[in-house]
Amino acid sequence: MPTDEQLSRRSSDAAAIRKVKILAVDDDRSYLRYLEFLLGRAGFEIVTTTDANAAIAQLGSDDSIDLLIVDLAMPAMDGIQLVQELQEKEGRCAGLYKILLTASDGTETRLRALDSGLDDCLTKNSPESEILAKLRSAARRLEMERRLHIENEELQALALTDELTGVGNRRALYREGEEVLRAGRPMSAVLFDIDSFKSINDTYGHLSGDRVLIDIAAVLKEHTRYGDILARFGGDEFVILLPDTDIEHARRIAERICSTIAQLEWQTDRGTFGTTASCGLSTTRPNVKYELADLLSQSDERLYARKRTVTASP
């Protein structure tokens, strides 16, 4: 009777196999039929072709193919040449596991195949057990690489996201904003500051302050367009970068957002309260090279000049 560990490994192998699609390329139709029977019975998804150029076209149009089995000896283009051709097509070999089929088990051929970018070799007289073992091993490797890729993407997303509000953080702001400026596109920057935020925390508690930040971030998100860049700049400050937007259009967007924020209310055990937000705007000028820090500094100066004006008003 198989142990729990063996059952778990078999389950893992089966899950990996179901996710792997194989393209087999060989001008020997009888061997292709053999592979279709053997691999199909083992749970793999397999498609076949007898022509190297057709294989290249199929790989170019079908991103779901994970594994290539290609015969070495074929007319017009052999298996190694096919892989080299694929390598010249940027990105198509990335993540594609490549196995060379050979008539003999010569060391020289294996070394040439591995040096040419293939991952493994099989001979046509290999027993079924060896073929399946190598393909299951390849399936596990592909699944592991896929998981690592997903985990890496998730980690990158976390590294660029403000944990509390779910919008971008300062790192994301600089990465995306600098990319717009490097492309030479005009851009406006709006810096928002929540008025009397410290008083909200002191009076209603930090959980209420967090709720305010989350809800205001939601308002900002609702008023951003496709291509705009939203981030929490730090504390109670948020930034929206508006590519291809002049200062007047940016001002209208900012005023609409501030008006919406002023209508929000929060209910707590200590009473109901609202707040307002102040903003400062800046925009690029033609034929002037900007760093994102320059725009943000201008927005910050205008924000606090505006706050001082409001405070000084009777």
Which regions have little confidence, pLDDT < 50, spanning 5+ residues? 1-18
Q: Give the tally of structural domains.
A: 2
The CATH architecture of the largest domain: 2-Layer Sandwich
The CATH class label of the largest domain is: Alpha Beta
Helix content: 40-55%
Largest sheet: 5 strands, parallel
* Coarse morphology: elongated
Rg: 30 Å
- CATH-assigned fold name of the largest domain: Alpha-Beta Plaits
Query: What count of helical segments does DSSP give?
Result: 11
The overall pLDDT, averaged over residues, is 86
Q: Write out the CATH superfamily name of the largest domain.
A: Reverse transcriptase/Diguanylate cyclase domain
Q: What structural class should be given to the helix and strand makeup? A: alpha/beta
Gap from first CA to last CA:
87 Å
- Looking across the biggest beta sheet, what order are the strands in? 2-1-3-4-5
Strand content: 15-25%
